[in-house]
Amino acid sequence: MTELVRFTARSFRTPSPVPFGAAIVQSKSGDLLYRARNAVMRERDPSSHAELRTVRLASRKLGKPSLAGYTLYSTCEPCAMCMANALWAGLDRVVYGATIEDANRHCKQIHIPAEEVAQRSEMPCVVEGEVLRDLCYGLFTDPRMLKAFKTWTTRRPQRKNG
After folding, report:
1. Model confidence at 120: pLDDT above 60
2. Exposed (0-12), middle (13-18) or buried (19+): which is 111, by Cβ within 10 Å?
3. Residue 41: predicted pLDDT
4. DSSP 3-state of 25
5. At what angle do helices 80-89 and 50-62 cross, to 10 degrees?
6. Kind and range of the H or E element at 49?
7. Would you tell me how many other CB atoms lie within 10 Å of the CB of residue 83?
8. Is 51 a catalytic residue?
9. Is 97 exposed, middle or buried (0-12, 13-18, 19+ CB in 10 A)?
10. pLDDT band for position 96 (50/70/90)?
11. Nearest by Cα to 75 from 132, 127, 142
12. What are the pLDDT digits (tens) for 37-89?
């Protein structure tokens, strides 16, 4: 997870910094298969979440849609879309750092825990959360990221009743 945070933080030196990074490793050996960062703003594609991109690229690299035998690491708890994708890919395990609530302080989120998505499916997948949470949440609170969040249009002010 520490290496994934370093990889993700390198985006802070680019015009499109992101706090979301993901990596897929072989579950038994720990060998890295693929890693990617969120590219929603850069690609102008709302589905270009780090986890989804990593699954797509790792599957392409293996030449098959199944990632059985692999673990997904993510700097942030996968949203419902990303967790469902992890299940469809057959990943053994998903390990995340910061929580959906942490991310929601800075950008919109779907408030369905990854563990709940996994429990409601027929596809087995272990979900382990809040691994090195403070380190991962540090990606969200880095001054360069806080500045970038101000340019994102993904956080709308709450409407007042009346």
Report:
1. yes
2. exposed
3. 87
4. strand
5. 20
6. none
7. 28
8. yes
9. buried
10. very high
11. 132
12. 999 988 999 999 999 999 999 999 999 999 999 999 999 999 999 999 999 99
